[in-house]
Write a structure and sequence with these properties.
- The protein has 66 residues and is of the alpha+beta class.
- It is 32% helix and 44% strand.
- Strands 1-2-3 form a 3-stranded antiparallel beta sheet.
- Strand 2 (11-21) and strand 3 form a beta hairpin.
Length: 66
């Protein structure tokens, strides 16, 4: 999974995307979650807190090499 930033007109949008291969071996992408506009996410304190908490949870996960 990875974060993908796409530009539409004057705005950037953030999506959580999963890569997979179809039956023919072609790489495809499946959007797991649309987070919305990047400028609004950066200015939303509750969203920033949520992301910081997720980062803390990942760092505390046993077996995490980061």
């Amino acid at each position: 999974m990875f974060l993908k930033i796409t530009r539409i007109k004057d705005f950037e949008y953030v999506k959580l995307v999963e890569s997979y291969r179809d039956n023919d071996g072609v790489t495809r992408h499946n959007v797991i979650c649309n987070f919305g506009r990047l400028d609004r996410m950066k200015s939303d304190p509750s969203f920033v807190r949520s992301i910081k908490k997720l980062c803390e949870m990942i760092e505390e996960t046993p077996g995490n090499e980061n």
